[in-house]
Every structure is written in structure tokens, then in C-alpha cells.
Specification:
mainly alpha, Growth Hormone, Chain: A, globular, disordered N terminus, MFS_dom, membrane, cell membrane
Length: 397
């Protein structure tokens, strides 16, 4: 009788060996982040078409993010025995469905329901993908692997929004969501073809250092939440702020695209340095983000100064996802998937909280106060990093 053919288990290798899988994850991450943030640049168009205020339209970001914040850990725990690749492909399929429903929804209520569905998918996708990327390579290369994958996240943060804004401005916001649904489909096909299957699990050892590792993880995720909170207090309403400086509506998409492209500099900086100087890289990243947001507040409402400050801010934020994901994974405070869920959850607490806080400041104190609020919160994240030496070591172990 013939011996059954056993499919080989993926063995972690170097970055080059894992290149195809990392690229697939980067592309999937790009469309996932773009799906989350596409309303940011389209808020004026969505609010006008659906007859709601810009603050209410901003809740499309808030509701999505809070779904992720609430569901990331429980959904990751509930699906821990399912194949990782299957979960990623399912999440991408739900992104497609969510974007299609938004594109054809006749009312704001149905748009909100579709966005909530996308948020549930996001809760699973990023929790699994962070751990997935770290499993594709050997442990000492995790920072570079995550840095490369989060180039996709950075591209979503800095290019996805301006691209969909330019498209939405040109042909309508609903068409932008349909194009994004097609992009999610293509990312799913590529993922199915080239991403190797990896095992789940990987719980940290139950030893005397377990408590210290969990404490380090808690500090990393706290700083992560604060960094995203400060950023999204401002970034959720960046299109509104730029228009308030006198920037023409037709120029908004191209301006965001040009500024956003600079964020890839920060992402590349993180990928090159995270396996060598993780603490220094994190500190530099947050200093640039806080400085850029503060400069934006000082320059507002001048058009040229506001655009220049936003460019500096974007460079810094391009590195944020990678530095916190790598720091959290290296604490070994939980399994890679649970670490991914915690990073995902706290980032989205920041995203949703930032959208809500920005709306309150915008409606209360006005445009000029929004950047200062965001800058103060990012400085708080920096202070956590400076005191949490175990979570943010000078060199990797």
C-alpha cells in the first residue's frame, strides 16, 4: 500500500526565502488598512450625499475601529485552532462584501452596518497577520519581516487614503469603494496562491519571567494606543483641516498623495533598523510624529506651512506600525496571535478614540485646537516608551 503523501510544514527561514509570503501579506495589509481608512478623505462627499454632518460621518471610522478593539482578542482566541491562512482569506472576503455593500447602500444606517461588518473582519485579519509574519522567518529577523509587511500598512495609511480620495473626488465616493472591493479580491487571490501555510500556537514558556514579559507587553500596547490616539485625533479630519487652509477641493487628493508617499521613508527606516536599534528607532519615530503634528498646529491656517508640517508628520507615522508590532512580539508576553490581537485592539482603540476626540475638539474649540490635542497625546506615548526599557530595549536580545 502506498505511503500517504504528507505536506511539509513551513520552516522559518530568512527574509529572502519568505519574500513571496511577506509580499502577499504586505499587499493584503495595504487593502485592509485602506478599507479601514477610506472614509477619512471622503468625509465631505459622504456627509453631503447621505445628508449627515462631517462629525457624524467620522463615526464610520470610529465604529469600525471600536469593533476591532472589542472583538480582536475574543475572536482571535475563539479561532485559535483554525488554519491561519484560511482565516486570512476569509477576512479578505468579508472586506470585499463590506465595501460592496457600502458602495450601493442608500442610507447612512446601512453604510454604518456594512462598516461594522468590516470592523469584525479587521479584528481577525490583523491579529492573525502580525503573528503570521513573525512565523515566516527566524526569530532574530522578526523586526525586518514585520517592517516589510507593514510597508503595506504604511502604504495604506499614506497612499490608500489619498488615492481613494482622488478617485472619489473624480468619479464619486461610491465608485472608490467598488474599486477597493476589486483590490481586496485581487489581494485574496495572490494570498491564496503564494502565502505558505503556517502552524498556530506558540505560547510563551511559563517561567519566572512570565510576569515581567506580560508587564512589558502591557507597556508596549499602552504606548501603541496613545500613539494612534494622538495621530487619529488629527488625521481623521485632515481633509477638513486642509480645506480650511484654503486648499482647493480638487487639489486635496493629490496633496494627500504627495504628502502620504513620504511616509514610506519612515517605513523603510523602521525596516532597516528595527533588528539593530529598536529603542532608538521608536524614540525617533515618535519625536518626528509629535513634532510634525505640533508644527501643523503652529502653521495652521497657512496653506504652505500646514502642508509642509503634514509631510514631516507623515514621514514619522510611516514607521509607527512596525515599531510597535515588533516591540510587542519580542516581549513574548503571549502567543504571537494574542500579541497581534492586543496590538490590533489597542491601535484601534486609538483610531476610534481619536476620531471621536477629534470630533469633540473640532465641534468645540475649532480647527486650530485639533493638532495641539493630538501632539500632546503622542508626547504621552513617547514618555511611556522612555520609561519602559524592558518593552523597548536598546538592542534585541
Amino acid at each position: 500500500m502506498a505511503t500517504p503523501r504528507v505536506r511539509p510544514t513551513w520552516q522559518p527561514g530568512d527574509v529572502r526565502e519568505a519574500g513571496g509570503g511577506l509580499f502577499a501579506l504586505a499587499l493584503a495589509t495595504f487593502v485592509a488598512i485602506t478599507t479601514e481608512l477610506v472614509p477619512v478623505g471622503l468625509l465631505p462627499l459622504i456627509s453631503d450625499d447621505l445628508d449627515v454632518s462631517e462629525g457624524v460621518a467620522g463615526l464610520l471610522v470610529t465604529a469600525y475601529a471600536f469593533m476591532v478593539a472589542v472583538l480582536a482578542v475574543p475572536l482571535t482566541t475563539a479561532t485559535r485552532k483554525l488554519p491561519r491562512k484560511t482565516l486570512l482569506l476569509t477576512a479578505l472576503g468579508v472586506y470585499v462584501l463590506s465595501n460592496v455593500i457600502v458602495a450601493v447602500a442608500p442610507t447612512f444606517a446601512l453604510v454604518a452596518v456594512a462598516r461594522t461588518l468590516g470592523g469584525a473582519s479587521h479584528a481577525v485579519f490583523f491579529s492573525v497577520s502580525i503573528g503570521y509574519a513573525s512565523r515566516l522567518v527566524r526569530a532574530h529577523l522578526a523586526g525586518r519581516a514585520l517592517g516589510l509587511v507593514t510597508l503595506g500598512a504604511s502604504a495604506g495609511f499614506v497612499l490608500g487614503v489619498p488615492l481613494t480620495t482622488a478617485l472619489g473626488t473624480a468619479v464619486g465616493w461610491r465608485a472608490a469603494f467598488l474599486v477597493l472591493a476589486v483590490a481586496c479580491t485581487l489581494a485574496g487571490v495572490l494570498t491564496a496562491l503564494v502565502l505558505p501555510s503556517v502552524p498556530g500556537g506558540g505560547a510563551p514558556p511559563d517561567d519566572a519571567a512570565r510576569g515581567a514579559r506580560r508587564t512589558a507587553l502591557a507597556k508596549v500596547t499602552t504606548a501603541n494606543a496613545l500613539a494612534y490616539l494622538g495621530h487619529y485625533t488629527v488625521y481623521t479630519y485632515v481633509s477638513v483641516l486642509l480645506l480650511a487652509t484654503g486648499l482647493a477641493t480638487a487639489a486635496l487628493g493629490p496633496a494627500l498623495l504627495l504628502i502620504g508617499a513620504l511616509g514610506l521613508i519612515g517605513a523603510g527606516f523602521a525596516a532597516a533598523r528595527l533588528d539593530v536599534r529598536p529603542r532608538q528607532t521608536t524614540v525617533i519615530t515618535l519625536v518626528v510624529v509629535a513634532g510634525g503634528i505640533l508644527a501643523l498646529g503652529l502653521a495652521f491656517p497657512g496653506t504652505a506651512g500646514t502642508l509642509a508640517a503634514a509631510a514631516v508628520w507623515s514621514i514619522g507615522f510611516g514607521a509607527v506600525a512596525a515599531v510597535f508590532q515588533a516591540a510587542a512580539i519580542r516581549t513574548r508576553g503571549a502567543s504571537p496571535d494574542v500579541v497581534g490581537a492586543l496590538v490590533n485592539s489597542t491601535a484601534n482603540i486609538g483610531i476610534g478614540g481619536g476620531a471621536a476626540l477629534g470630533a469633540l475638539v473640532l465641534d468645540g474649540a475649532g480647527f486650530a485646537a485639533v493638532p495641539y490635542t493630538g501632539a500632546v497625546i503622542v508626547v504621552a506615548a513617547l514618555l511611556v516608551v522612555l520609561v519602559a526599557r524592558q518593552g523597548f530595549p536598546a538592542t534585541q536580545d
